[in-house]
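Question thread 4412

I'm putting together a teaching handout and wanted feedback from people who do this every day. The idea is simple: show students a protein as raw sequence, then show them the structure tokens that encode its fold, then repeat with a second protein so they can compare. Below is the first pair exactly as I plan to print it.
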Amino acid sequence: MTVQEDLTVSVGEDAVTHEQLAAALERSTEGDKQARVFLRADKAVAYGDLMTVMNLVRMAGYTKIALVGLDAAPGGAAATAVEPSGEAQP
């Protein structure tokens, strides 16, 4: 899922409101609350706004949340997920 600069939240390709987020995650994960949710945000999104979205994900019952960033790499950018433990996962 993605948080855009204008704070629009998308699950996959679908923009959803905060009220629709739980249902969208439920559809995306086929109801599997143990599924890992990959969360990325535009660099302009404030920390507090990102935490608000993360808390909505947790309130929906999803506790396995990985923050995804883009690392600048020679020849292009590669996605990296950072687990809550702090370990990077390619």
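The second pair follows. I'd like the answer to focus on this one:
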Amino acid sequence: MVVTDVTHLNILSIKSLVLSFWITPQHIPVAFLAEQDAWATCGVVLHYLPTYSPELDLIEILWRFVKYHWLPLSSYLSYENLKNSVLNLLSSFGSEYRITFT
């Protein structure tokens, strides 16, 4: 479940939830932080991720696969080759190219 609007988050209906934030605690609204104790009693856990954590950023994971596994060396011969290769690869992502975590 992805929560985008915390004003509609009903703590009575939550059994267990982990919220991860890409922003630092000082940038989270005070009204949100004021509810932390109430949420903790309902099993809601807040995690603040490090400011730089590429292993947790989905676009970084995708780009690592593109760069190191899927792009042939010939893609780097020119800007046009690189652009076309990346566009073709991204348009085939999900069908021909997949990331599986096993």
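Top answer:
Good format. For the second protein you could add a caption like this: The chain has a mean pLDDT of 76. The CA atoms of residues 21 and 48 lie 5 Å apart.
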